Each structure stands twice: as structure tokens, then as C-alpha cells.
């Protein structure tokens, strides 16, 4: 699948920066899961919201203690199966679930780089799959790289990376600002908008 030089640069970041980057990408995938749950009455989108909020809390509250084992147990039942739905929206919803699962696992293992790259790749795959579905055919990496939607997704990931890489220390204001901006936008990478 599409690879980006950002994956090499991410190695240089600290774990709080990795965690913030992952939380930002999950925040951008949340509307896909939310909309799928709303349309199908599957699961509880608020569970995604609560787990993601706990991750943000860990980032901004020094003494925050979260039992991520317990969160993972709850989360595993909240993932839809593509076999159960004849609806395209199940795929972006599953990608959102995979990303949140990676985020939870990063908190359990303490190793963040592999999870950051997995979430970044999942995020771009969501966009690529929509583009190929709309085109009605498979596309080569070269064709995908040329698409504005793919370029925009990479640009957003690079922008988040640049903001984080510019920090010399754990920057609470930047973290809170990113969270607020992404929530306020309420829009996913494939154009799903919350509450519309």
C-alpha cells in the first residue's frame, strides 16, 4: 500500500508526539464510525468517543490512569464485520476501528512507532479504497499518488507531524488545540460530517 516518507521521520518523535499523532488521525476517522453506527444501529459510537477521550486525557493530565486492558475488551465487541453489511460504509468504519485498536495497543505495549505507522497507513487506505470504489477499479500506487484526495490526506498528516516535530517539550496547548480543531471540524477524511 502507499508509503510516505513521513514514516521515516516519525521515528525521531517522542512517544507523546506519536500518541498525539495517532489520536489526531483517529479523531479524523471517528465520523466514519459514528455515521455507520447511526445508519445501521450497530454498536455504540459513544464507546469510540469515550476511549479516544481517555487517550486525549492521558496526553493532557499528568496523573491520568486508564485501564486500557479493560478498554480493549469493551472495544473488541464494537467492531463490525464486513460480511454482515451490504453497505460501503462498513469499510471506513472497520478502518476507524482498526486505528483505534492500534491506539489502544500502543498504550498497552508502550511501543508506539509501529502503531503510528499502522494508523497512518490505515488512514490513507480509507481514502484510497473510496477512490478506487468510486472509480470502479483497482489503481496502481502511481495513479493513487496523483489523486487530489490522497495528496490532501498526506498533506494533513504532514501538517500534524510538522506541528508536533516543532515542539521541544510536551506541549499541552498544542495538544488541546489539535483536539479542539479536529473536533470542531467534525469531518472525516472521506467527507463524512458529524450531525449533517
Topology:
Elements: H1 6-10, H2 15-40, H3 45-60, H4 68-76, H5 90-109, H6 113-135, H7 141-145, H8 148-165, H9 172-185
Helix pairs in contact: 2-3, 2-5, 2-6, 2-8, 2-9, 3-5, 4-5, 5-6, 6-8
Compose a concise summary of this entry.
The protein is mainly α. It has helices at residues 6-10, 15-40, 45-60, 68-76, 90-109, 113-135, 141-145, 148-165, 172-185.
Structural class: mainly alpha
Name the overall outline.
globular
Mean pLDDT: 91
Number of strands: 0
**Describe the biggest sheet?**
none
Give helix % range.
55-70%
Order of helices and strands: HHHHHHHHH
Distance between the termini: 32 Å
Number of H- or I-type helical stretches: 9
Low-confidence stretches: none
Radius of gyration: 16 Å
Please state roughly what percent of the residues sit in beta strands, choosing from under 5%, 5-15%, 15-25%, 25-35%, 35-45% or over 45%: under 5%
Would you give an account of this structure?
The protein is an all-alpha fold. Helices cover about 70% and strands about 0% of the residues. It has nine helices and no strands. It is globular, with a radius of gyration of 16 Å. It starts with 5 loop residues before the first helix and ends in an 11-residue tail after the last helix. The mean pLDDT is about 90.
Amino acid at each position: 500500500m502507499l508509503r510516505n516518507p513521513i514514516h521515516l521521520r516519525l521515528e525521531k518523535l517522542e512517544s507523546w508526539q506519536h500518541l498525539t499523532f495517532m489520536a489526531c488521525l483517529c479523531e479524523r476517522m471517528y465520523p466514519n464510525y459514528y455515521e455507520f453506527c447511526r445508519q445501521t444501529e450497530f454498536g455504540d459510537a459513544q464507546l469510540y468517543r469515550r476511549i479516544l477521550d481517555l487517550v486525549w486525557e492521558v496526553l493532557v493530565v499528568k496523573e491520568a490512569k486508564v485501564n486500557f486492558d479493560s478498554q480493549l475488551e469493551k472495544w473488541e465487541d464494537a467492531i463490525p464485520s464486513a460480511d454482515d453489511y451490504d453497505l460501503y460504509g462498513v469499510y471506513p468504519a472497520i478502518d476507524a476501528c482498526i486505528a483505534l485498536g492500534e491506539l489502544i495497543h500502543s498504550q498497552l505495549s508502550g511501543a508506539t512507532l509501529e502503531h503510528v505507522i499502522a494508523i497512518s497507513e490505515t488512514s490513507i487506505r480509507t481514502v484510497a479504497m473510496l477512490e478506487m470504489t468510486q472509480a470502479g477499479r483497482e489503481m496502481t500506487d502511481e495513479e493513487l499518488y496523483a489523486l487530489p484526495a490522497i495528496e490532501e490526506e498526506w498533506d494533513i498528516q504532514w501538517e500534524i507531524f510538522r506541528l508536533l516535530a516543532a515542539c521541544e517539550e510536551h506541549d499541552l496547548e498544542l495538544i488541546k488545540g489539535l483536539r479542539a480543531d479536529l473536533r470542531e471540524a467534525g469531518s472525516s477524511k472521506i467527507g463524512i460530517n458529524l450531525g449533517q
